[in-house]
Amino acid sequence: MTAEQIIFLIVGAATLIAGFLVVTVRNLVHAALWLVATLFGVAIIYTLLNAGFLAVVQVVVYIGAIAILFIFAVMLTRRQAAETGASVNKNWWAGALMSVLTFAALALLLQSWSGFSKTASAVPSGFDAINQLGDALTSSAGYVLPFEVASVLLLAALVGAVYLAFNKK
Amino acid sequence: MNFWNDPLKVAADWLTGIFVGWGMNDIFAHVLVVFLGIFVLIMILMVIDIFLVWIERKVVARFQDRIGPNRLGPFGLIQPFADIVKLMIKEDTTPDGADKVVYNIAPMLSMMSVLILWAVVPLAPVMIGVDLNAGALFIIAAGSIGTLSIIMAGWSSNNKFSVIGAFRQVAVMVSFEVPMLAVMLIPTIFSGSMGMNSIIQSQNIWFVFISPLAALIFLIAAIAELGRAPFDLAEGESELVAGFNVEYSGMKFGMFYAGELLHAFTFGGFWAILFFGGYRFFGLEQVSPFLAIVIILFKALVGYWVIMWVKYTVMRIRIDQMLAFNWKFLTPVAFVLVMVTALMNVLLRGAGSWLYITGMFLSNVIVAWVSLEIVRSIGKKERERVEGVKVVAEAHH
Amino acid sequence: MNEWIYVGLFIIVGLIIPVGAIGVAWILGPKKPNPVKQSTYECGIEPVGEGWVQFKAQYYIFALVFLVFDVETVFLFPWAVKLAQLGMFAVIEGIVFILILIAGLVYTWRKGMLEWV
């Protein structure tokens, strides 16, 4: 096992545990903080995949904005920090069974894929991911339209949020 | 390759040699050396931090026509060490009903979010730290962790003042992140890279001369990000006692305090890196890396001094004024500036460098002037409206 | 990948230092807690109600607007990196991108969502 694999296993396990705690802890702010830990773990996994830009964006957008939004939402809507009702209903075992089966099916499918056991080829030296991304987003042969559509999508999100908040009053 | 030209590499090679001599794995020895290097760097930063306490107290004293610490040692230089001893041996209380784990993690995260900023600070041409190609965004990412630590501290203290303070601070920080991100695009446009070292390398002319307005907006957004006056709504001594850190004492409070000072110093450094040429100063940085370090630390101190100057001169503003200032003024101006800069950059690319600089400078001045004129007319209307309300109210009496 | 190991080490050392400082203070400092000392106070009297106060929805609105602009600016960084080598087409493209979002800001503004009421 290489050092990279060991780091991946540790980070992956920590991310999964944090993710499990998000849905099981009773205190909602704690759940939000565990969500932050999960998202940070995902960011570390991005860096392991040589996607440094994506990792930084993950921290900026998910931890810096979305997690804050969650905490604000929790603080705005609830009087009590701890959830008092049951967090599972009596069908929880069926859900657990389904998720285990889905995981097993996915693992089986991936096992039969030829690329499953291959290690990633090294990134060529001098490869600048951000430059490539900038190229793809701006050249007329690239993804100009999706780039602009992303802006329209963000606009739609903003207008929708404002509309919802406005109508509540 | 001698010690004076590249001290870091010489020291690292020497240490690696020793570790390998002990029968260590090559890679492990390298990682260990880097670890020790980072440890030494952060220890130096903590020592600088101790002196920042002294600098801050001396400067605030001068602004308020006092002398400041002057009893312990020459010019009161021993004073911060006395402060440290006091913080060390002070009883550390945890308030009733506090969320113990979150309460204890928050100050550590706060300090960490400041210390990791130094990972991307290039100290000299041969000491560029970690040359991340997403350097500019890394600053914001570290700031996000700082924001999180503040909300953790405020929430876990079980105190209304700290929750209110944390919420206000987070509102300030997330708001001013937008203009800060936007003006960070401008050095990125000029240098064609987000890496801190490339930004410094492409500053044959300091970017502050090409885009003075961007430098100004970055400074304002940095002050807000630091939570310093006039944006210190989180701490507002007179309204919120001390805001998010009201329940902290001893070393945990010390971490917030030291973190804030080092954060201000660090943002002075980033201001210098992005707009004032970083470690460059008329070729002096090529003479010796030690000189380059002195230059960048001096520039960071100047930036820190400007931040202190603003802090001790300007009064605190209300949260509605602060948010209106950001969303209705600073953010639109920053985005307009980005568009103008991008356009001028293409139009003036073929022109000579003097024409380029003059054109850029003038376009900045025009954007600033037009936006200030708009604000002036809106401000006049607003004043008239408030006056009108007052007149009507008086008439009713 | 390699450079991120350094950042990881920075994070580890950046945590060790404050943990160490707080740890030393914990060892050196006196520890004599008692219920009265630890009770919270508020403006010189006992606190009224619980520490967790409810907040106004305005915080949430601003966080939402912030999220949209955060994502937008992140999109613009690759564009800015590449801009020096690109022509008018890319500049116009970026300007259109920004203008669409400024329209969103203007809409939010006109709807009165940027007011702190």
Sum up the structure in keywords.
heterotrimer; A: 169 residues; mainly alpha; Four Helix Bundle (Hemerythrin (Met), subunit A); 6 helices; 73% helix; C: 117 residues; Methane Monooxygenase Hydroxylase, Chain G, domain 1; 4 helices; flat
Structural class by SSE content of chain C? mainly alpha
Q: Would you identify the CATH architecture of chain C?
A: Up-down Bundle
- Strand residue content of chain C: under 5%
Shape of chain A: globular
For the record, what is the CATH homologous superfamily label of the largest domain in chain A? NADH-ubiquinone/plastoquinone oxidoreductase chain 6, subunit NuoJ
State the distance separating the first and last CA atoms of chain C: 48 Å
Q: Specify the structural class of chain A.
A: mainly alpha
Question: Largest interface: which pair?
Answer: B-C, 81 and 69 residues
Under CATH at level 1, the class of the largest domain in chain A stands as: Mainly Alpha
CATH class of chain C: Mainly Alpha
Question: What is the number of helices of chain C?
Answer: 4
Low-pLDDT regions of chain A: none
User: What's the main sheet of chain C like?
Assistant: none
Mean pLDDT of chain A: 82
Q: Level of helix content of chain A? A: over 70%
Order of helices and strands of chain C: HHHH
| Total DSSP helices of chain A | 6
CATH topology of the largest domain in chain A: Four Helix Bundle (Hemerythrin (Met), subunit A)
In CATH terms, the superfamily of chain C is: NADH:ubiquinone/plastoquinone oxidoreductase, chain 3
Order of helices and strands of chain A: HHHHHH
